[in-house]
Design goal:
The chain has 224 residues and is α/β, with parallel strands linked by helices. It is 36% helix and 26% strand.
Amino acid sequence: MFNTTVLKASGVNKFFHEPEDFHVLSDINLEVMKGEFVSLVGKSGSGKSTLLYLLSTLDTDYEGRIDINNVKVTGLSQNELSRFRNEYIGFVFQFHFLLPEFTVLQNVMMPALKLGKYSHAEVEERAIQKLSQMEMHVHAKKLSGKLSGGQQQRVAIARAMINDPLIIMADEPTGNLDSANAGIVLELFQGIAARGNTIIAVTHDLDFARTAARTIELVDGKII
């Protein structure tokens, strides 16, 4: 761990052009190592969420270069990026984005079924395993819409882990939770990091940021 680069951003610049030209991110150079837990912090408008969306390949409108797992993702087609994300990146957002009409188990299985790497039975077994790690396996057959907010976020983390991604990208994963559930989610992320997964997380939560092995602060679109 910590001796292999899994993500590298080189000379990354990002501009918004509406309603007027605005330089959002300025000359970002960043390396993240395998197994590292990195938090991105900064005031609102500092560019931290914008940076996360670039690093996760969800936003491709930038200058510079981003490499993930020794693959130059800059310039890949949307179809190539979609498959790359599904295999190598897990996402946890402030809002869980579960499909309420589907069960917990079905929600967790979806990324792995889309990847097509495992049989249906294997995907179901993996999903139960990930739910067990989140202590949510007992709710596997429930509709996700029937769960509490904290429970839904734990299911969302299990879904993010289903393909054993190289990197977990998280955008304010505790931002929509009360303090008790935020503490539970924080412990879950600590466990994920302890198992050697790379985590890059945007957060306003000081307790969450302190947990990370490295904290990167952005001010006015620059890493300080």
